[in-house]
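Supplementary Text 2. Reproducibility record for the structural model of the 214-residue chain.

All settings were left at their defaults, and a single model was retained for analysis rather than an ensemble. We include the record here because the model underlies the residue-level annotations in Supplementary Table 4.
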Amino acid sequence: MNKRSPLTSLLGAFLICLLALSVSTQVTTGTEPEVFRSMFTDILRSNKKAGGSVLVLNGCGSTINGALSAPLSGSDNDRLGQLTKNYPEYKISDRVDVPNLLPKYYLPVLLSSRIAKYEIDSDKGANDNLGRILALDELKAAVDASGLNKGMDIGIGPKSPPRKSTTKKTRMLTNVTLLEALNEVAAFYGSAVWAYTESHCNGEIRTRIGFTRN
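Retained model, structure tokens:
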């Protein structure tokens, strides 16, 4: 019977460890949704820019496919490009003044729902305006039709106290989608940031929507 030398045994054990490390590295290629979102919002925050993000999660406890190979660097456009290059299922919208991080292949139906008319009011915070928008008849009908009325969290950011300015400002929106309305509210406040998350888990859809920064 041939006996293996200690050196051969040691080499074999080393190769097994390398193989196990390689397998574990290949498995952990996802990023937690809020970590992924924070990469985007940090870019907006660095220049006090308005914007918003949409995350769609398919599966309970799912992660975002991708991982950064190096820290984001350069201009805002450079960093946004690096972000979507490393996370190919997402894209940046074309609107320069209010960038959006969006799924590349699917936009939640609710965000495409149309609003006939809404007036943004400067005496109210961003989340207060959002609550009033979602209370519109056409939006309530869209929420009911999509089945989101049983699992919808509204206003995920801090509530703002009433704003009573010496010069009240308003902006009228007509015939816009909910996505467009969110961007208009964000732009109205200058640097507001909104977040929309749609989670599909065990046959149920849960949605969180709100402004994380006024």
